[in-house]
Amino acid sequence: MVFRLIPHPQIIARRALEYPAIPRSERTTGMLGRYKGSVANRIILWIVVFSIVACAMVTAVQVYFEQKNHIARIEAEIAGIERSYTSSVRRALWIQDMAQLQMLAEGIAAAREIAFVSINENGNPVATVGRRPADGGVVWETPITFEHRNAIIEIGRLVIVGDLARAREQILWLALRMLATNVAITLSIAVFVYFIFSHLVTRHLSAMAEQLSRMSGDDLETVLRLDRARASGAGDDEFDLLVSAFNGLRDRLRETRGKFKKGQEELRSSERRYRAILDEMLDTYYRTDNAGVVTMVTPSMYDLVGWRPQDAIGRKAVDFYVDPDCHARFIESFKMHGGSVRAFEAAMRHRDGRIVWISTTARIYRDDDGNIAGIEGIARDITEQRAAAEAVRRSHNQLRLVSDSVPALILYVDDVLKIRFANREAAKWLARDVEEIVGSDIDTVMDKTWVDRIRPHWEAALIGELQVVSDTFVAPDGKERRLELRLVPHAQADGTVEGFFALGLDMTERLMLEERLRQSQKMESVGQLTGGVAHDFNNLLGVILGNVEFLIEEPEMDAGERAPLLAAIQRSGERGARLTRQLLAFSRMQPLEPSTLNLDRDLKEFVSMLRPTIGDAVTVTMHAQPGLWPCMADRGLLELAILNLMLNARDAMPEGGEVMLTLANADVNDKGQAAEIGLEPGDYVMIAVSDSGKGIPAEMQPHVFEPFFTTKDVGRGTGLGLSMVYGFVSQSGGQVTLESEIGAGTTIRLYLPVAHLVTLTAEADANAAGAKRGICGRSERILVVEDDADLRALTATMLDRLGYKVMLAHDGPSALDLLESGLLPDIVLTDVRLPNGMLGPQVVSAAREIEPGIRAIYMTGFADRTQVASADLDGNDILIKKPFRSDDLALVLERVRTSD
Prior knowledge:
Elements: E1 2-5, H1 11-16, H2 24-35, H3 39-95, H4 98-109, E2 114-121, E3 124-130, E4 138-148, E5 151-162, H5 165-214, H6 238-280, E6 284-289, E7 294-297, H7 301-305, H8 309-312, H9 324-336, E8 340-349, E9 355-366, E10 372-381, H10 383-404, E11 409-414, E12 419-422, H11 424-430, H12 434-437, H13 442-445, H14 448-461, E13 467-474, E14 480-491, E15 497-506, H15 508-553, H16 559-587, E16 595-597, H17 599-614, E17 618-624, E18 631-633, H18 635-651, E19 657-668, H19 671-677, E20 682-691, H20 721-731, E21 735-741, E22 745-753, E23 758-760, H21 766-772, E24 781-785, H22 789-801, E25 805-809, H23 812-820, E26 827-831, H24 840-850, E27 855-860, E28 878-881, H25 886-898
Parallel strand pairs: 17-19, 23-28, 24-25, 24-26, 26-27, 27-28
Antiparallel strand pairs: 1-4, 2-3, 2-5, 4-5, 6-7, 6-10, 8-9, 9-10, 11-12, 11-15, 13-14, 14-15, 16-18, 19-20, 20-22, 21-22
C-alpha cells in the first residue's frame, strides 16, 4: 500500500493574511511612543503584545496537531476500506462485472471522509464516484492483482481520495475560538495589572519625579516623602529603601556641596597666597609657550635682568641670552633629562648691557589634554657666586702651590668621604694623578689594607675627634714605610663637622735612626737588666730560704706560726713565676700569637664588619659546617688574610657579584691527598673564599703568591696581599690552594691545623680555681718524668695527696727501664725537654708502643707553643706550664681522665 500526501497551503497562514497587520515601525515606535509617558502603560502594552503573540503561537500549534489527527483518521478509514473491499473489487474486475464495480465504488464513496473513488483498468476508469477535491486531498492508490496459473497479474488500480475541506473548516473555527478566549483572558489580566501597578508603583514614581523636578540646582532642602498608607508593623519595602537612599544622597550632596564651596574658597585663598609668594620671592618664576615666547613672569625679573613683566611678556626667551646657542643647549637638555633640567647655568644680557649669570631649574608643563604646552621654571642670579667661586679657584691655586712644596701628604676629605683636595705628595703615596684623586671616594683610591686600618680613625675624625695613626704601609715603590698620619676634624662654629684634613709624614728614616739608637741603648741596659733581675730573684730566694730555714730549725712550730711562713714562700714562688714569664716574653722574637679560634663565631662577626667595605654591589654569604672544629691561628693575621682575599674577590667583580665564605672540617689523613695539597696528614679546618668574577688566566696562577705579583691595573694593587696570606698560613702550619677558571670565578682555600692541643696556665681565674678543689684520683698509676729532682719530688707529693700512685724517672732511658719492667702507667706526666738525648714525646711514644691507650700530659717552662713546637707534640695531648700548683695539676688530670 502506498500513501501520498498532496501538498497544500497552510490554512492558518492563509487566514492570517486576511487580518490587517500593524507595520513593524508603527509597532515599535508609534505604539511605544504613545505609551512612553507611563511605566504602567508600557508594561500593559508589552503584556498585551506578548500575550497575543503567545496565543497565536499556541493556537497555531494546536491547529497543526488537529490537522495531523484528521489526516490520521482519513488514513485509518482508507485502511478499513482496503480490508473490506479489495477482494470484492478484484473478483468483479476479473470477471468484468461493471455493475458490481460501480456498486462497490459507490459503497466506498459512502464513507464519511471519502470524496472520490475510481477503479481503473489499464489506466482507464471503469467505475467512478464523486469528485477530486480542488486542493488534492489525501490520495490512496493501490494495485489490484489476481493470481492466475501461479502468476500474479495486475488487472487494475483502486484510487481513493480523502476530503480535507470539512476538517479545515472545523480547525479554523477551533482556532478562532481559542484565539478569542486567550485574547479575552490576556486583556483582563492586563487591565488588572495596569490598575495594580498604577496604584502601587506608577503613582509613587510620578510623585517622586514631580518632587525631584521641583528641586533646583542649589535647593537641596526638600525632603522626599511618599503619600501612602502602611499597615501597622509592616517592614520597609523597596520604595522606603529608595526614598531613604535618596534622602541620604541629598544629605551627602548637601555636605559635599558645603565642602566644595569651602574648598573653592581655600583654593582661591591659596592662589592669592601663592601669587603673593611668587611676587615677593627673589627668584624669578617664568613660563614660555611651545614657540619659546614668554607668557608669564614674576616681578623679580626686573631685579634679575632689568625687564618688567609687562615688557618681557610676548618676547622670545632666546632674546635674553648672551649666546643663542646656550638657549638651544637649554632646550636640548630637556630631551636628555626626561623633560626637566636642574641648575642649568647661562649668561643673560641685562637691560643696561651688563652680563648676568643665572641658574635655572625648569620642567615641561602640559595642558588639560596632556599635550606639551611649554616650559616653566625658576631662575636665580648667581653672578656673585661665580665671582666668589673664581676667587676660591685662585685661592685654591695658591694653596696648591704651597701644599705641593711641603714634603708631607695632605688630603682634605668631606663628610661623605669624597676627597676634595690632594697635594703632590699624596698623589705620590697613592700612586695616582691628583686629578684622579680629587672627587673620588677615599676608599676607592687607597689600598684596601690602608682603608681597613684607617677607617676607624676617619670615622672618629668625622665626629670631631683628633686622630693620630702611626703604622707601616706599602709605598708605591713596594717598600714598607712608616707613616705618621694625623686626621684633623674641620668643624664649623656650631660644632658641625664638614670633613677632616689628613696630614701624613714619612717617618721611616727617622724611626730607623731611633731604632738604632734604641738598640744601642738596649745593649747598654742589658747589664742593668741582668743586675735588676738578679736583685729581684735574690730577694725572692731570700724570702724562700729564710722561711724554709725557720721551718727546718723549729719543726715543733704550731700551725698558726707556720701558716704565715708558708704563705710568704708561696707568694715568692708565684712572683718568681711571673718574673720568669715576663723575661721569656721579652726575649721572644716570634711575631705570631696563635690562639684557639671558633671560626664560625669569630669570622661571622668579622665578615659583618666587612660588608660596608666590600660594597653594596657584592653579595657576601657565609656558610659554616655544623660541628666545625676549632683551629689554632693568630686571629689578627687571619682576619687580615680574609680581608685581603675578600677584597681581591670584590675587585675581580667590577660589575658586582657574589662572594662565598665557606668553613668546613677537612680530614686530610690520606697521604696522597695530603701530598697533593702540600700538607702533613692530619685534621685541618678549611676556609674557602669564592667569587663569581672573571677568573685568573692559567699562565698567571703559578705566580699569584709571589711578592709584588698582581693581576690588577697599575696603581690598584701592591701584589703583597696573597703573598702575605701564603706566608701567614705556611707559618701557621697550613697550606693555601688556588682554583680558578676564566669566566667561572676563583676559589682560594686556606687549610689551618685543628687546635687539639690544650694549654693550661697557672693564672686560671678565680672561678676555675674554685672548680679545681676537691678533684681527686682513683688510684691511677702515673709515671712522672722530670730531670729536676726537687720538682720531681714535689710533683710526686702533689699526686700522692691527690690519690694517685706515682712512678718516678729522671730522664727518658730511666723511664723506659720502668716501662720494660712491666710497670705500665695509666698516664705519663713528662717534661717536654729531657736530658740524655730523649725528649718527652719520645718517652710517650715508647710507652704507647707497649700500651696504646696510655695518655700523656706535657710539662714545659717555655712561654708559648712555638718554642716547644720542635718537640713534635701529639695534637691530642695536654700541655701544662710550669710552675703549676696542686689545683692546676688536679684539673688537668681530671680532664685527661674524663676525656674520651
